[in-house]
Amino acid sequence: MGRYIDFQREVLRISCMLSEQGYFGPHSGTAGNVSMLIPGEEAAAITPTAMRYDDMTAADVCVVDLDGVRIEGIRKPSIEMQMHLAAYRRRPDVGAVIHTHQVCASALGLIGEPIPALFDEVTLAIGPLVDIVPYSLSGTRELHEAVAAKLGNRCHCYIIQNHGAICVGPDLDRTFTFVELLEKTAAVYLHALATGRPVSRLPEAVAQELFAAVKARQDREVARTETTVTAKQSNPLRARRKAG
């Protein structure tokens, strides 16, 4: 076993949970992908491409550097790898990325409908907006650049037009929760839109107050991560991610 095996196991664990609960689409398919940043390194563990999750082992999970060069693993990384790496470079608070094909969020992507601030507990978790990332073909530079452009709003969930969704967070477990919150909110919003009646939103002042708490939490996460770097070490990862 390699030195990254614990991280590979974590990626596999969350991937299997997502697949079993239908967030990737058909259980027999290979859609969706999951990654996590390796703490203190310019590297990430990410699911392989074109492999069923019920056949996957921890050893099948790839480890790559932030340029996408494979460090460990025999499989080819997900074709969406650059989308994940763009998130790590763009957002210093992000330690995990989950890309899904979940049903209700994907439905909103077909009609180009972002999700506004509807519930206080959801807004406090993922931010006041689930924005729409414009369509680009899967695995292309255009797609990962479009995702990176949206990440600057500091929210945690995004809908990719005619494709699926992407959620980012400090670690895999919390990012999995964001996936669940996104689907619950998307389902409720679709039901509300279907009535044809006006959909009430949180007052703007409340949404912004909750968003301030989200951003403060992100800042604390970045500060906490920085304290893990010893005084004898430089932190090229932080500098590179901020520059990205």
Question: Would you give an account of this structure?
Answer:
With 244 residues, this protein is an alpha+beta fold. It has a single domain, classed as L-fuculose-1-phosphate Aldolase, CATH 3.40.225. A hairpin with a 3-residue loop joins strand 7 and strand 8. Helix 2 packs parallel to helix 5 and helix 4 runs parallel beside helix 7. The longest helix is centred in the last third of the chain and has 23 residues. The two termini are 32 Å apart.
What does this entry show, briefly?
This protein is an alpha+beta fold and 244 residues long. The protein contains eight helices and eight strands; from the N terminus they run H-E-E-E-E-H-E-H-H-E-H-E-E-H-H-H.
Amino- and carboxy-terminal Cα gap? 32 Å
Helix content: 40-55%
| Beta content | 5-15%
The biggest sheet amounts to: 8 strands, mixed
Average residue pLDDT: 93
The number of domains is 1
Oligomer: single chain
Tell me the radius of gyration. 18 Å
Number of helices: 8
Low-confidence stretches: none
**CATH homologous superfamily (4th level) name:** Class II aldolase/adducin N-terminal domain
Labels describing this entry:
L-fuculose-1-phosphate Aldolase; eight-stranded mixed sheet; 244 residues; 43% helix
